[in-house]
Every structure is written in C-alpha cells, then in structure tokens.
Design a protein that fits this description.
Elements: H1 3-19, H2 27-32, E1 33-40, E2 43-48, E3 58-64, E4 77-81, E5 84-86, E6 89-91, E7 111-116, E8 123-128, E9 136-143, E10 150-155, E11 162-168, E12 174-182, E13 188-196, E14 199-200, E15 209-211, E16 215-220, E17 232-240, E18 244-251, E19 255-259, E20 269-274, E21 280-286, E22 293-301, E23 304-306, E24 313-316, E25 321-327, E26 335-341, E27 349-358, E28 361-368, E29 376-382, E30 387-393, E31 398-404, E32 410-412, E33 414-420, E34 424-428, E35 434-437, E36 440-449, E37 453-462, E38 465-472, E39 479-485
Antiparallel strand pairs: 1-39, 2-8, 3-7, 3-9, 4-8, 5-6, 9-10, 11-17, 12-16, 12-18, 13-14, 13-15, 13-17, 18-19, 20-26, 21-25, 21-27, 22-23, 22-24, 22-26, 27-28, 29-36, 30-34, 30-37, 31-33, 31-36, 32-35, 37-38
Length: 494
C-alpha cells in the first residue's frame, strides 16, 4: 500500500465525520475496515423556509445543540438569509435581507431570535465543531388572522435530493406552497410531480424548475395544475444540486401549518403524537411503486394497539393517492397511528391532517410518517406551558431518557427516565428546567428495548382559537460510523 492509498483512507474517514456518510467499496479498503466507530459529525447544514407573507406574522427561531461526548471544542453555528450574490453584494429579490439574531454561546443552551412581518427571508444555517452534532433549529410563527391563522411550526431541515409530501391540496379553500431553498453556489433544477386519487395530474409547469444559488422559491401548487383535489401527494425530485423542501398549507377556515416531508417509502410506518383532543383526523397515503398496497390501520393508545372501527384497512392503488377520515380517533387519549402491510409489503408514504376545535374555532396541524428517534432526537422552542411530548413503542417495550435543557435566559437542565410498554403511546410528563427563564429544548435518548417514535405539540390559544403545531422527533444524525483500520497505517508510509 503506498502513500496515496493511505491518504485516501484518511480522507474518507474525515469526509464521514463531516457528512455523516462514508463508503469503502474496494476489496483492499474493505479488508482494512474492521469495526465502525461512532464519531460526532463535524459540520451540519439546515434550511429554514420563509415563514409567512402575512404583515401581522410574528416568527421566532430557536437554535439548540445537545452536549455530545467527544465533540471537542470550538466551532460555531449561524443562520443567515438565503440570498443571491450580485456584484459582491447580498440581495434577496431586490431587497436587503433581514437576519434574525442567533448567537449560540455553547452546546446545551438554546439561542433565540425573532422577526416580524411578511418579508422575512428563508434562512441558510451551518454549524461546525461542537455545535454540529444534533444541531436543531425550530421556526415558529403566530398569525393572528387571515388564511392560515394560528400557530405554524417547522423544524429547519437538511438539504436533500428527494421529498414526498402526502396530504397537500389544491382545493378551493386551501393555499399550499412548496418552499424550495438552495444553499449552494450553483443553481438547482427541480421537478414537482402531483398525484391525486386517479394518478398523476397533467402538468408541465412543474418540470425543470430552477432555484438559483443562495435563494428560495415558494411554488404555489394551484399554479401547476387546473385540477382541484382535496387530497394530493407531491413528489419533489432534484435533477441537479440539492434543496431544502417544506410545504406550507394554509386553509381559509381551518388555519394552517407546515407539512414536513414523510420518511422514505416503507412497508410499515408510524405517525406519532395525535393530540388526545383531536376532533378530526385524516390519513393520506401514496405508494410510488407498481404494486397496490394494503395497509392495516391501528392506533397505539395508552393501553395498547386498537383498530379504529370502520377504518381497519386502507387500500392504496399504485401511483394513486388514497385517504381515510378517522374522525376523533383518539377519543380523549394519547395516540399514534401504526400502518403495517396486511400481506405483501409495499413501500408507501403517509401523513395525517389533524384538526382541533369546533365550528369557527378550529386549527390544523400535520403529522408525517417519521423515522424512529434512534440514538437521540431533539426538539427546541418548548415552554413551561403548552408543550406535550408524545412517545410510542409500536413493537416492543423500551426505555428512554428525556432531558430538558437549560433555559435560553436561565435555568438548569433536568432529566427523567420513562418506560414504554409495547404497542402503546404515552404523553409523558416531560421535565422542565429548574428555575426556567425563556424557552428550552427536549432531548430524547434511547436507553434500551425496541424502536421509539416521538412528536412534540406546542399549543397556544388566542381569542378562543386553539392554535397548535406538531413536530416529529426523528434521529438527529449527530453521530456517524467511521471504519477503523486493522493496522497502524503510518508504518506503511516509510
């Protein structure tokens, strides 16, 4: 083995620590790889969509990094406006870009910033060093009136090349936007495909959409098709480059919220954290393959798995969007939806539209199918009141540790351990920091047992309207597996 080969392996390990992914495919490299060491990632990117077009919108941002062993010291985290560079100056659609003030002092303590009005830009964020592993940014917006009024929240997400959004709509009372944010120095080219109850919708306007470097574009779905359908699935496919993507779904009567992307297509899915006082729950599912999917629908309740009467199964035709209205399926108890194949496993994506309240005082949120929390998951922007943490163990019992961080303006971290029975969902009494001032983050760590899924609900009632937003807790991908060599390669450089 020569010096070049040694350098290649060292470079691969460094790349893994930065990106969270590494592959050694050559026979020689595979022979030197022994076991995978878990190391903290060294750099993380997050993208936050433009929060609102409403002049009365109030938006807050909360940045948090959990303390990670072996993360070292140094580094920083920052959010700045997604801008186009022109003649060495930063512009955002011809206007000077605003920048929320976020200055994280250290891991383990949230940092907050805010903005108001309808011209706040999308944000591009980067964290390095000790701030990178598990970095989380929450965007929360309050809109007092108008279409989409209520509480809207979204976890800023990493750039990627493919996204699935079941649960969007082009109905007359809905205004849905797909927000595309490009963090890179070159343009990204994106296709947006829409699938309804009868298959793909005819549209050429969603093909070859160019998203300029360091810019963000909200694409109004109703401009891509003339068809008005209540339940649709959007597929965002990036031909070149990479983008962040999220759907802002605004309803004239039922408020609105952000719809995050569903987890990758899978034969079995979990949609956690349905509020116990939900008055209407709608399941929307789609299978991108060539085969139909037959799904068993179950609710993981505090006492175990139950089958909703009248909604025992859902048939999803290949390439077509299916839906089922589940009503007040939780009936006053914590619940999560569990979808499993009745026979042959066929990959599907799914999401829930959840409504709270009655009459004119209703609000909407969305729950996409999500990954399990894995080793660790974090959600920021919690308050002493109005925060609900929901955890479910769909297959086997499990034990988790929940840590409330220090407050953004004061307070000390506090942890609790919880045991979940198989097939159940619990709204756990999450800890609150001692002497809390400001907001805080909740970090959930898997201790033992089967997979655990989680979601956090923020609730705030304004003028009798039950505003709320739900964010799922997938694994934070703060650690990466890096192969270890069988021998000391330094001796081979001589």
């Amino acid at each position: 083995m020569n010096r070049t080969t040694v350098s290649l392996i060292a470079g691969t390990a460094a790349l893994a620590a930065v990106t969270g992914f590494a592959t050694l495919s050559s026979p020689e490299a595979a022979g030197t790889a022994r076991t995978a060491a878990e190391l903290p990632v060294e750099r993380t990117s997050l993208l936050c969509p433009s929060p609102s077009t409403s002049d009365i919108a109030e938006t807050s941002y909360t940045s948090f990094t959990p303390v990670t062993k072996d993360a070292g010291s140094g580094g920083k985290a920052e959010l700045q406006a997604a801008t186009e560079e022109s003649d060495g100056k930063s512009e955002s659609k011809g206007k000077k870009a605003a920048k929320p003030v976020l200055e994280p002092e250290q891991p383990g303590k949230p940092a907050t910033g805010d903005t108001s009005g309808g011209d706040a830009p999308a944000l591009v964020g980067t964290a390095e060093g000790q701030f990178a592993p598990g970095w989380t940014v929450q965007e929360t917006t309050e809109v007092a009136a108008g279409s989409g009024r209520g509480l809207q929240g979204v976890n800023c997400s990493a750039p990627d090349t493919e996204f699935w959004f079941p649960g969007v709509s082009t109905a007359a009372d809905r205004t849905d936007y797909v927000h595309l944010t490009n963090p890179d120095n070159s343009a990204a080219v994106v296709d947006i495909e829409l699938y309804g109850k009868d298959g793909a919708l005819d549209s050429t306007l969603g093909e070859g959409i160019t998203v300029g470097p360091h810019s963000s574009d909200p694409i109004l779905l109703s401009t891509l098709t003339e068809e008005k359908q209540e339940n649709l699935t959007v597929h965002v496919n990036v031909r070149s480059g990479r983008v962040g993507a999220a759907v802002q779904a605004l309803d004239d009567k039922l408020g609105g919220d952000w719809l995050a992307a569903s987890t990758d297509p899978s034969g079995s899915l979990v949609l956690p954290g349905i509020p116990k006082d939900a008055t209407a729950v709608r399941l929307v599912a789609f299978t991108p393959g060539d085969s139909d999917a037959d799904l068993k629908v179950q609710l993981a309740s505090p006492s175990g798995l139950i089958t909703p009467a009248g909604s025992e199964t859902l048939h999803v035709k290949a390439g077509m969007t299916a839906s089922a209205d589940l009503g007040d399926v939780t009936r006053g108890e914590a619940g999560s939806l569990v979808l499993t194949p009745t026979d042959t496993s066929v990959p599907v994506v799914a999401a829930l539209r959840v409504v709270r309240g009655k009459g004119d005082d209703q609000e909407t949120a969305f729950i996409p199918a999500t990954r399990p929390l894995g080793t660790r998951a974090t959600v920021a922007d919690n308050s002493a009141k109005g925060t609900t943490l929901s955890l479910t163990a769909p297959t086997r019992g499990a034990t988790v540790k929940v840590t409330a961080s220090a407050g953004s303006e004061g307070g000390e971290a506090l942890s609790k351990t919880f045991t979940l029975k198989a097939g159940t969902t619990q709204n756990v009494e999450a800890p609150v920091p001692t002497g809390l001032k400001g907001t805080y983050a909740l970090t959930v760590e898997h201790v033992s047992g089967g997979p655990v899924y989680g979601a956090r609900t923020l609730a705030a009632t304004e003028d009798g309207v039950p505003g709320f937003t739900i964010q799922t807790l997938p694994d934070d991908r703060g650690m990466v597996a890096v192969p270890e060599a069988d021998q000391d390669l330094s001796v081979l450089q001589k």
